[in-house]
Amino acid sequence: MSKIELIASSLELPNGAVIPNRLVKVAMEEGIGHGGGLPGRRHCELYRRWGEGGWGMLISGNVQVDPRHLATPHDRTIPSTSQHTISAYSALRFATLSSLPPDTKAPLLIMQISHAGLQSSSTIGASRLPWVPAIGPSSMRPNTGNSWAGKVVGRTLWPTKSRQIVDFAEWEGIVQKFVDAAVVAEKAGWEGVQVHSAHGYLLAEYLSPLTNPNPLPLPGVHWKIPVRLHLLFLILRGVHAATRREFIKAIKINCSDFVQGGLDEAQSAEIIKEIVSWRMVDVLEVSGGNYSNPGIVAFTDSQRPTSSRQALFSHFTSALLPSLPSPPEGPAIILTGSIHSRELIHSSLETRTCDLVGIGRPSCIYPALPRDVILNIDVPDEEAVFGGYHIRGGDWVKQALGGEKSSGKKASKGIPLVGAGVSTFWHEWQMCRLGRGVEPDINMSWLGAALWEGVVFAVIGAVLGVFRRK
Predict the structure, then answer these.
(1) Which helix (H) or strand (E) holds 277?
(2) What contacts 410, CB < 8 A, 6 or more positions away?
(3) How many beta carbons lie within 10 A of that of residue 159, not counting itself?
(4) Three-state SS for 318?
(5) Among 47, 93, 177, 341, which is most buried by a count of CB atoms within 10 Å?
(6) Which stretches of the chain score pLDDT less than 50?
(7) DSSP string of 424-459?
(8) What pLDDT digit, counting tens, does each position of 324-342 carry?
(9) Is residue 48 a contact partner of residue 95, using CB atoms and an 8 Å limit?
(10) What CATH fold (topology level) applies to the domain 3-387?
Protein backbone atom coordinates (compact mmCIF):
# COMPACT_ATOMS: atom_id res chain seq x y z
CA MET A 1 0.00 0.00 0.00
CA SER A 2 1.42 3.38 -0.98
CA LYS A 3 1.72 6.30 1.42
CA ILE A 4 -1.27 8.08 -0.06
CA GLU A 5 -3.35 4.89 -0.12
CA LEU A 6 -2.77 4.30 3.59
CA ILE A 7 -3.58 7.90 4.52
CA ALA A 8 -6.68 7.82 2.30
CA SER A 9 -7.93 4.51 3.74
CA SER A 10 -11.13 4.45 5.79
CA LEU A 11 -11.36 3.46 9.45
CA GLU A 12 -14.25 1.87 11.33
CA LEU A 13 -14.93 3.04 14.88
CA PRO A 14 -16.25 0.93 17.78
CA ASN A 15 -19.77 2.28 17.23
CA GLY A 16 -19.78 1.27 13.54
CA ALA A 17 -19.21 4.74 12.09
CA VAL A 18 -16.64 4.92 9.28
CA ILE A 19 -14.16 7.78 8.83
CA PRO A 20 -13.41 8.18 5.09
CA ASN A 21 -9.67 8.91 5.58
CA ARG A 22 -7.11 9.37 8.35
CA LEU A 23 -6.86 13.19 8.39
CA VAL A 24 -8.63 15.21 11.08
CA LYS A 25 -9.00 18.97 11.24
CA VAL A 26 -8.84 19.40 15.01
CA ALA A 27 -10.52 22.05 17.15
CA MET A 28 -9.14 25.58 17.37
CA GLU A 29 -10.41 28.86 18.72
CA GLU A 30 -11.85 30.46 15.59
CA GLY A 31 -11.98 34.09 16.71
CA ILE A 32 -15.26 34.76 14.90
CA GLY A 33 -18.20 36.46 16.56
CA HIS A 34 -18.45 38.30 19.86
CA GLY A 35 -20.11 37.58 23.18
CA GLY A 36 -20.82 33.91 22.58
CA GLY A 37 -24.00 32.73 20.94
CA LEU A 38 -24.83 30.61 17.92
CA PRO A 39 -22.82 30.16 14.71
CA GLY A 40 -23.40 32.71 11.99
CA ARG A 41 -22.63 33.38 8.33
CA ARG A 42 -18.88 33.73 8.78
CA HIS A 43 -18.71 30.40 10.61
CA CYS A 44 -20.62 28.83 7.74
CA GLU A 45 -18.16 30.21 5.16
CA LEU A 46 -15.15 29.05 7.18
CA TYR A 47 -16.56 25.55 7.61
CA ARG A 48 -17.56 25.38 3.95
CA ARG A 49 -13.90 25.86 3.03
CA TRP A 50 -12.86 23.04 5.35
CA GLY A 51 -15.75 20.87 4.17
CA GLU A 52 -14.54 20.89 0.58
CA GLY A 53 -10.92 20.29 1.58
CA GLY A 54 -10.88 16.50 1.70
CA TRP A 55 -10.70 15.96 5.48
CA GLY A 56 -11.90 12.69 7.00
CA MET A 57 -13.20 14.38 10.13
CA LEU A 58 -13.81 17.99 11.14
CA ILE A 59 -13.90 18.89 14.84
CA SER A 60 -15.45 22.25 15.62
CA GLY A 61 -13.97 24.94 17.81
CA ASN A 62 -15.12 25.32 21.39
CA VAL A 63 -18.86 25.13 21.95
CA GLN A 64 -19.37 26.08 25.58
CA VAL A 65 -22.12 24.20 27.39
CA ASP A 66 -22.70 27.11 29.79
CA PRO A 67 -23.11 30.53 28.10
CA ARG A 68 -22.15 32.25 31.36
CA HIS A 69 -18.66 30.77 31.34
CA LEU A 70 -16.88 31.51 28.07
CA ALA A 71 -13.18 30.82 27.52
CA THR A 72 -12.97 33.69 25.01
CA PRO A 73 -15.45 36.28 23.73
CA HIS A 74 -15.67 34.29 20.46
CA ASP A 75 -16.87 30.94 21.81
CA ARG A 76 -19.99 29.40 20.39
CA THR A 77 -22.50 28.24 22.99
CA ILE A 78 -25.52 26.06 23.58
CA PRO A 79 -27.89 28.72 25.00
CA SER A 80 -30.80 26.25 25.14
CA THR A 81 -32.08 23.00 23.70
CA SER A 82 -34.69 24.84 21.64
CA GLN A 83 -35.37 24.31 17.95
CA HIS A 84 -33.73 27.69 17.30
CA THR A 85 -30.43 26.39 18.68
CA ILE A 86 -30.75 23.10 16.81
CA SER A 87 -31.50 24.92 13.55
CA ALA A 88 -28.40 27.14 13.88
CA TYR A 89 -26.06 24.16 14.22
CA SER A 90 -27.94 22.30 11.52
CA ALA A 91 -27.33 25.25 9.19
CA LEU A 92 -23.62 25.14 9.99
CA ARG A 93 -23.52 21.44 9.12
CA PHE A 94 -25.38 22.08 5.86
CA ALA A 95 -22.93 24.83 4.91
CA THR A 96 -19.97 22.57 5.67
CA LEU A 97 -21.17 19.95 3.23
CA SER A 98 -22.61 22.31 0.60
CA SER A 99 -19.56 22.48 -1.68
CA LEU A 100 -18.24 18.93 -1.68
CA PRO A 101 -16.43 18.13 -4.93
CA PRO A 102 -17.98 15.33 -7.05
CA ASP A 103 -17.29 11.78 -5.86
CA THR A 104 -15.91 13.07 -2.55
CA LYS A 105 -16.97 11.38 0.66
CA ALA A 106 -18.32 13.77 3.27
CA PRO A 107 -16.20 14.33 6.40
CA LEU A 108 -17.65 13.37 9.76
CA LEU A 109 -18.60 16.52 11.65
CA ILE A 110 -17.86 16.49 15.39
CA MET A 111 -18.86 19.22 17.86
CA GLN A 112 -16.34 19.93 20.59
CA ILE A 113 -18.26 20.63 23.81
CA SER A 114 -16.54 22.29 26.71
CA HIS A 115 -16.70 24.18 29.99
CA ALA A 116 -13.96 26.76 30.59
CA GLY A 117 -13.99 26.40 34.38
CA LEU A 118 -11.36 28.52 36.14
CA GLN A 119 -10.16 30.04 32.87
CA SER A 120 -13.40 31.87 32.16
CA SER A 121 -12.81 35.61 32.48
CA SER A 122 -15.79 37.68 33.60
CA THR A 123 -14.39 40.83 31.98
CA ILE A 124 -13.02 39.89 28.57
CA GLY A 125 -15.70 37.25 28.00
CA ALA A 126 -18.51 39.66 28.95
CA SER A 127 -20.76 36.68 29.62
CA ARG A 128 -21.52 37.63 33.23
CA LEU A 129 -21.07 40.59 35.56
CA PRO A 130 -17.40 41.42 36.31
CA TRP A 131 -17.64 40.52 39.99
CA VAL A 132 -19.23 37.12 39.35
CA PRO A 133 -16.39 34.58 39.65
CA ALA A 134 -15.50 31.65 37.49
CA ILE A 135 -16.25 28.21 38.92
CA GLY A 136 -14.11 25.15 39.41
CA PRO A 137 -12.99 22.42 41.79
CA SER A 138 -10.95 24.93 43.83
CA SER A 139 -10.74 28.65 44.52
CA MET A 140 -7.84 30.28 42.67
CA ARG A 141 -6.90 32.69 39.92
CA PRO A 142 -4.81 31.87 36.81
CA ASN A 143 -1.19 32.94 37.09
CA THR A 144 -0.24 35.56 34.51
CA GLY A 145 3.31 36.04 35.80
CA ASN A 146 5.07 38.01 38.52
CA SER A 147 5.74 41.19 36.57
CA TRP A 148 3.68 44.27 37.34
CA ALA A 149 2.08 44.05 33.89
CA GLY A 150 1.20 40.40 34.43
CA LYS A 151 -0.39 41.14 37.78
CA VAL A 152 -2.44 43.98 36.30
CA VAL A 153 -3.65 41.73 33.47
CA GLY A 154 -4.46 38.93 35.91
CA ARG A 155 -6.56 41.14 38.16
CA THR A 156 -8.26 42.69 35.15
CA LEU A 157 -9.23 39.40 33.54
CA TRP A 158 -10.07 37.67 36.82
CA PRO A 159 -11.12 40.35 39.36
CA THR A 160 -11.96 37.63 41.89
CA LYS A 161 -10.76 34.12 42.53
CA SER A 162 -12.92 31.30 41.24
CA ARG A 163 -15.74 29.92 43.35
CA GLN A 164 -15.17 26.34 44.46
CA ILE A 165 -18.02 23.98 43.63
CA VAL A 166 -18.86 21.96 46.71
CA ASP A 167 -22.49 21.06 46.00
CA PHE A 168 -23.21 17.70 44.34
CA ALA A 169 -26.25 19.19 42.62
CA GLU A 170 -24.11 21.82 40.87
CA TRP A 171 -21.76 19.17 39.52
CA GLU A 172 -24.75 17.15 38.37
CA GLY A 173 -26.08 20.26 36.63
CA ILE A 174 -22.81 20.62 34.73
CA VAL A 175 -23.00 16.99 33.66
CA GLN A 176 -26.52 17.60 32.35
CA LYS A 177 -25.35 20.61 30.33
CA PHE A 178 -22.84 18.40 28.50
CA VAL A 179 -25.55 15.81 27.87
CA ASP A 180 -27.95 18.47 26.59
CA ALA A 181 -25.26 19.79 24.23
CA ALA A 182 -24.71 16.30 22.82
CA VAL A 183 -28.45 15.89 22.23
CA VAL A 184 -28.54 19.23 20.38
CA ALA A 185 -25.61 18.12 18.19
CA GLU A 186 -27.32 14.84 17.34
CA LYS A 187 -30.63 16.51 16.52
CA ALA A 188 -28.75 19.01 14.32
CA GLY A 189 -27.35 16.12 12.26
CA TRP A 190 -23.77 16.16 13.53
CA GLU A 191 -22.03 12.79 13.64
CA GLY A 192 -20.78 13.14 17.20
CA VAL A 193 -19.28 15.23 20.00
CA GLN A 194 -15.83 15.59 21.49
CA VAL A 195 -15.76 16.20 25.25
CA HIS A 196 -12.94 18.69 25.88
CA SER A 197 -10.87 17.39 28.77
CA ALA A 198 -7.65 19.28 28.00
CA HIS A 199 -5.91 22.67 28.06
CA GLY A 200 -6.77 23.39 31.68
CA TYR A 201 -10.52 23.60 31.18
CA LEU A 202 -12.97 22.30 33.77
CA LEU A 203 -12.56 18.57 33.17
CA ALA A 204 -8.76 18.89 33.12
CA GLU A 205 -9.00 20.95 36.32
CA TYR A 206 -11.01 18.20 38.00
CA LEU A 207 -8.33 15.69 37.00
CA SER A 208 -5.29 17.73 38.08
CA PRO A 209 -3.89 17.50 41.64
CA LEU A 210 -2.82 21.13 41.33
CA THR A 211 -6.27 22.56 40.62
CA ASN A 212 -8.20 19.88 42.51
CA PRO A 213 -6.07 18.92 45.53
CA ASN A 214 -9.03 17.42 47.41
CA PRO A 215 -11.26 15.83 44.76
CA LEU A 216 -14.91 15.40 45.62
CA PRO A 217 -16.31 11.91 44.95
CA LEU A 218 -19.49 12.30 42.93
CA PRO A 219 -22.60 10.20 43.54
CA GLY A 220 -23.59 7.43 41.15
CA VAL A 221 -20.03 6.37 40.25
CA HIS A 222 -18.67 2.88 40.99
CA TRP A 223 -16.05 2.90 43.73
CA LYS A 224 -13.45 1.38 41.38
CA ILE A 225 -13.47 4.48 39.14
CA PRO A 226 -10.64 6.85 40.22
CA VAL A 227 -12.20 9.86 41.90
CA ARG A 228 -10.45 12.34 39.58
CA LEU A 229 -12.24 10.73 36.63
CA HIS A 230 -15.72 10.90 38.17
CA LEU A 231 -16.79 14.01 36.27
CA LEU A 232 -15.66 12.68 32.88
CA PHE A 233 -17.23 9.29 33.58
CA LEU A 234 -20.63 10.79 34.45
CA ILE A 235 -20.59 12.96 31.32
CA LEU A 236 -19.74 10.05 29.02
CA ARG A 237 -22.32 7.81 30.67
CA GLY A 238 -24.96 10.50 30.31
CA VAL A 239 -24.16 11.13 26.66
CA HIS A 240 -24.30 7.40 25.96
CA ALA A 241 -27.71 7.10 27.56
CA ALA A 242 -29.13 10.13 25.70
CA THR A 243 -27.88 9.46 22.16
CA ARG A 244 -27.83 6.67 19.57
CA ARG A 245 -25.03 4.11 19.51
CA GLU A 246 -23.99 5.40 16.06
CA PHE A 247 -23.42 8.87 17.48
CA ILE A 248 -19.65 9.28 17.99
CA LYS A 249 -18.37 9.91 21.50
CA ALA A 250 -14.88 11.40 21.53
CA ILE A 251 -12.69 13.02 24.16
CA LYS A 252 -9.61 15.23 24.00
CA ILE A 253 -6.72 15.07 26.45
CA ASN A 254 -3.34 16.81 26.44
CA CYS A 255 -0.04 15.23 27.48
CA SER A 256 1.26 18.49 28.88
CA ASP A 257 -1.80 18.84 31.12
CA PHE A 258 -0.69 15.66 32.84
CA VAL A 259 2.94 16.72 33.29
CA GLN A 260 2.17 20.29 34.35
CA GLY A 261 -0.82 19.12 36.35
CA GLY A 262 1.34 17.10 38.71
CA LEU A 263 1.03 13.59 37.22
CA ASP A 264 3.94 11.41 36.12
CA GLU A 265 4.06 9.17 33.05
CA ALA A 266 2.91 6.02 34.83
CA GLN A 267 -0.10 7.78 36.32
CA SER A 268 -0.95 9.32 32.96
CA ALA A 269 -0.79 5.94 31.23
CA GLU A 270 -3.11 4.43 33.81
CA ILE A 271 -5.61 7.24 33.28
CA ILE A 272 -5.73 6.54 29.55
CA LYS A 273 -6.09 2.80 30.07
CA GLU A 274 -8.87 3.37 32.61
CA ILE A 275 -10.82 5.60 30.21
CA VAL A 276 -10.46 3.08 27.39
CA SER A 277 -11.65 0.26 29.70
CA TRP A 278 -15.04 1.96 30.07
CA ARG A 279 -15.78 1.17 26.42
CA MET A 280 -17.65 4.46 26.08
CA VAL A 281 -15.17 6.29 23.84
CA ASP A 282 -14.99 5.93 20.05
CA VAL A 283 -12.23 8.47 19.41
CA LEU A 284 -9.48 9.62 21.77
CA GLU A 285 -7.42 12.65 20.80
CA VAL A 286 -4.02 12.97 22.43
CA SER A 287 -2.54 16.40 21.88
CA GLY A 288 1.15 17.09 22.27
CA GLY A 289 1.32 20.48 20.66
CA ASN A 290 2.34 23.79 22.15
CA TYR A 291 -1.11 25.11 22.95
CA SER A 292 -0.48 23.94 26.50
CA ASN A 293 0.94 27.26 27.63
CA PRO A 294 -2.47 28.93 27.98
CA GLY A 295 -3.81 25.77 29.61
CA ILE A 296 -3.04 24.16 32.93
CA VAL A 297 0.35 25.88 32.94
CA ALA A 298 -1.51 29.10 33.66
CA PHE A 299 -2.03 27.80 37.17
CA THR A 300 1.54 26.63 37.75
CA ASP A 301 4.99 27.72 36.61
CA SER A 302 4.77 29.31 33.20
CA GLN A 303 8.51 28.98 32.68
CA ARG A 304 8.72 25.20 33.17
CA PRO A 305 10.86 23.54 30.49
CA THR A 306 9.07 21.65 27.74
CA SER A 307 11.31 18.57 27.93
CA SER A 308 8.95 16.73 30.28
CA ARG A 309 6.02 17.49 28.01
CA GLN A 310 7.91 16.25 24.97
CA ALA A 311 9.08 13.12 26.78
CA LEU A 312 5.54 12.27 27.83
CA PHE A 313 4.25 12.76 24.28
CA SER A 314 6.98 10.42 23.06
CA HIS A 315 5.96 7.89 25.69
CA PHE A 316 2.36 7.96 24.52
CA THR A 317 3.32 7.49 20.91
CA SER A 318 6.00 4.84 21.34
CA ALA A 319 4.71 2.71 24.21
CA LEU A 320 1.18 3.31 25.43
CA LEU A 321 -0.82 3.66 22.23
CA PRO A 322 0.26 0.41 20.54
CA SER A 323 -0.75 -1.46 23.70
CA LEU A 324 -4.35 -0.30 23.37
CA PRO A 325 -6.85 -2.31 21.28
CA SER A 326 -7.02 -1.22 17.66
CA PRO A 327 -10.28 0.03 16.11
CA PRO A 328 -12.97 -1.13 15.88
CA GLU A 329 -12.29 -3.08 19.10
CA GLY A 330 -10.91 0.02 20.79
CA PRO A 331 -11.12 3.78 20.23
CA ALA A 332 -9.35 5.41 17.30
CA ILE A 333 -6.38 7.42 18.55
CA ILE A 334 -5.78 10.88 17.11
CA LEU A 335 -2.32 12.34 17.61
CA THR A 336 -2.14 16.11 17.24
CA GLY A 337 0.97 18.23 17.17
CA SER A 338 3.87 18.77 14.74
CA ILE A 339 3.08 15.93 12.31
CA HIS A 340 3.62 18.17 9.31
CA SER A 341 4.51 16.05 6.30
CA ARG A 342 3.13 13.16 4.28
CA GLU A 343 6.16 11.09 5.31
CA LEU A 344 5.51 11.64 9.04
CA ILE A 345 1.80 10.98 8.68
CA HIS A 346 2.46 7.73 6.84
CA SER A 347 5.07 6.50 9.30
CA SER A 348 2.83 7.32 12.27
CA LEU A 349 -0.02 5.31 10.77
CA GLU A 350 2.14 2.46 9.49
CA THR A 351 3.72 1.83 12.90
CA ARG A 352 0.34 2.23 14.63
CA THR A 353 1.67 5.12 16.61
CA CYS A 354 -1.82 6.47 15.93
CA ASP A 355 -4.92 5.69 13.90
CA LEU A 356 -5.72 9.25 12.83
CA VAL A 357 -3.56 12.36 12.48
CA GLY A 358 -4.83 15.67 13.81
CA ILE A 359 -3.85 18.89 12.05
CA GLY A 360 -4.66 22.28 13.51
CA ARG A 361 -2.94 25.54 12.61
CA PRO A 362 -1.82 24.57 9.08
CA SER A 363 -5.51 24.12 8.22
CA CYS A 364 -5.96 27.87 8.80
CA ILE A 365 -3.48 28.58 6.01
CA TYR A 366 -4.34 25.61 3.79
CA PRO A 367 -8.03 24.72 4.35
CA ALA A 368 -7.88 22.17 1.52
CA LEU A 369 -4.59 20.67 2.70
CA PRO A 370 -5.67 17.00 2.30
CA ARG A 371 -7.09 17.47 -1.20
CA ASP A 372 -4.38 19.77 -2.56
CA VAL A 373 -1.26 18.39 -0.89
CA ILE A 374 -1.35 15.31 1.35
CA LEU A 375 -3.61 13.14 -0.83
CA ASN A 376 -2.64 14.72 -4.15
CA ILE A 377 -0.74 12.16 -6.25
CA ASP A 378 0.76 14.98 -8.34
CA VAL A 379 2.63 16.32 -5.28
CA PRO A 380 5.79 14.28 -4.59
CA ASP A 381 6.62 13.21 -1.03
CA GLU A 382 9.46 15.68 -0.65
CA GLU A 383 7.09 18.56 -1.46
CA ALA A 384 4.19 17.30 0.68
CA VAL A 385 5.42 19.27 3.68
CA PHE A 386 3.50 21.95 5.56
CA GLY A 387 3.90 23.94 8.75
CA GLY A 388 7.17 25.52 9.78
CA TYR A 389 6.23 28.91 8.35
CA HIS A 390 7.38 32.05 10.12
CA ILE A 391 5.02 34.71 11.48
CA ARG A 392 6.50 38.11 10.62
CA GLY A 393 6.96 40.15 13.79
CA GLY A 394 5.81 37.27 15.96
CA ASP A 395 9.09 36.76 17.82
CA TRP A 396 9.27 40.39 18.85
CA VAL A 397 5.73 40.32 20.22
CA LYS A 398 6.33 37.03 22.04
CA GLN A 399 9.44 38.42 23.71
CA ALA A 400 7.63 41.58 24.75
CA LEU A 401 4.77 39.60 26.28
CA GLY A 402 6.80 36.85 27.91
CA GLY A 403 6.36 33.95 25.51
CA GLU A 404 9.08 31.88 23.86
CA LYS A 405 10.89 32.75 20.64
CA SER A 406 10.54 30.43 17.66
CA SER A 407 13.99 29.09 18.46
CA GLY A 408 12.65 27.87 21.80
CA LYS A 409 14.87 30.24 23.83
CA LYS A 410 13.32 31.83 26.85
CA ALA A 411 12.05 35.33 26.37
CA SER A 412 12.07 38.22 28.78
CA LYS A 413 9.69 38.40 31.67
CA GLY A 414 6.30 39.68 30.75
CA ILE A 415 2.81 38.19 30.55
CA PRO A 416 3.38 34.52 29.71
CA LEU A 417 -0.29 33.68 29.37
CA VAL A 418 -0.64 36.35 26.68
CA GLY A 419 2.77 35.79 25.10
CA ALA A 420 2.00 32.14 24.57
CA GLY A 421 -1.07 33.10 22.54
CA VAL A 422 0.72 35.20 19.93
CA SER A 423 0.68 32.42 17.34
CA THR A 424 -2.86 31.48 18.35
CA PHE A 425 -4.11 35.00 17.62
CA TRP A 426 -2.40 35.11 14.22
CA HIS A 427 -4.04 31.86 13.17
CA GLU A 428 -7.40 33.07 14.47
CA TRP A 429 -7.06 36.10 12.22
CA GLN A 430 -6.39 33.80 9.25
CA MET A 431 -9.66 32.01 10.04
CA CYS A 432 -11.40 35.38 10.23
CA ARG A 433 -10.21 36.05 6.68
CA LEU A 434 -11.59 32.72 5.51
CA GLY A 435 -14.88 33.53 7.21
CA ARG A 436 -15.11 36.78 5.25
CA GLY A 437 -14.45 34.94 2.00
CA VAL A 438 -10.86 36.20 1.75
CA GLU A 439 -7.87 33.90 1.18
CA PRO A 440 -5.38 33.37 4.03
CA ASP A 441 -2.16 35.38 3.84
CA ILE A 442 0.91 33.50 5.06
CA ASN A 443 2.98 36.70 4.71
CA MET A 444 0.66 38.73 6.94
CA SER A 445 2.64 40.38 9.74
CA TRP A 446 1.48 39.95 13.31
CA LEU A 447 1.05 43.66 14.01
CA GLY A 448 -0.70 44.28 10.69
CA ALA A 449 -3.07 41.41 11.38
CA ALA A 450 -3.71 42.72 14.88
CA LEU A 451 -4.70 46.09 13.44
CA TRP A 452 -6.87 44.96 10.55
CA GLU A 453 -8.26 41.63 11.69
CA GLY A 454 -8.16 42.13 15.45
CA VAL A 455 -9.42 45.72 15.52
CA VAL A 456 -10.85 47.11 12.28
CA PHE A 457 -12.74 44.11 10.94
CA ALA A 458 -13.61 42.95 14.46
CA VAL A 459 -15.27 46.29 15.22
CA ILE A 460 -17.04 46.33 11.86
CA GLY A 461 -18.27 42.78 12.45
CA ALA A 462 -19.49 43.61 15.93
CA VAL A 463 -21.38 46.71 14.73
CA LEU A 464 -22.98 44.85 11.82
CA GLY A 465 -23.93 42.05 14.19
CA VAL A 466 -25.78 44.50 16.43
CA PHE A 467 -27.77 45.89 13.48
CA ARG A 468 -28.62 42.39 12.19
CA ARG A 469 -30.05 41.47 15.59
CA LYS A 470 -32.32 44.52 15.59
Answers:
(1) helix 265-277
(2) 303, 404
(3) 15
(4) helix
(5) 47
(6) 289-308, 310-311, 411-412, 419, 466-467, 469-470
(7) HHHHHHHHHHHHTT----TT--HHHHHHIIIIIHHH
(8) 899 999 999 998 888 899 9
(9) yes
(10) TIM Barrel (3.20.20)
CA distances from 37 to 67, 224, 384 (A): 8, 39, 38
Bond into 328 cis (ω within 30): yes
Phi-psi region of 238 (alpha: psi -120 to 50; beta: other; left: phi over 0): alpha
Parse the chain into domains and list their residue ranges.
Answer: 3-387, 389-464
Closest by CA position to 110, among listed 259, 235, 285: 285
| Angle subtended at Cα 353 by Cα 347 and Cα 354, rounded to the nearest 5 degrees | 100
CA distance 337 to 294: 16
Please state, in angstroms and rounded to a whole number, the distance separating the CA atoms of residues 96 and 47.
5
- The string of pLDDT tens digits covering residues 243-293 is 999 999 999 987 666 666 656 667 777 888 999 999 999 999 987 643 333
Measured CA distances, 223 to 170, 226, 275 (Å): 21, 8, 15
135-136 and 163-164 as β-strands: parallel, antiparallel, unpaired?
parallel
CA 433 to chain centre: 20
User: Distance between CA atoms of 358 and 298, rounded to whole angstroms?
Assistant: 24
Cα Rg, the chain, nearest whole Å: 21
Give buried/exposed letters for 9-45 (b at 16+ CB in 10 A, else e): eebebbbebebbbbbbbbbbbbbbbbebbbbbebbbb
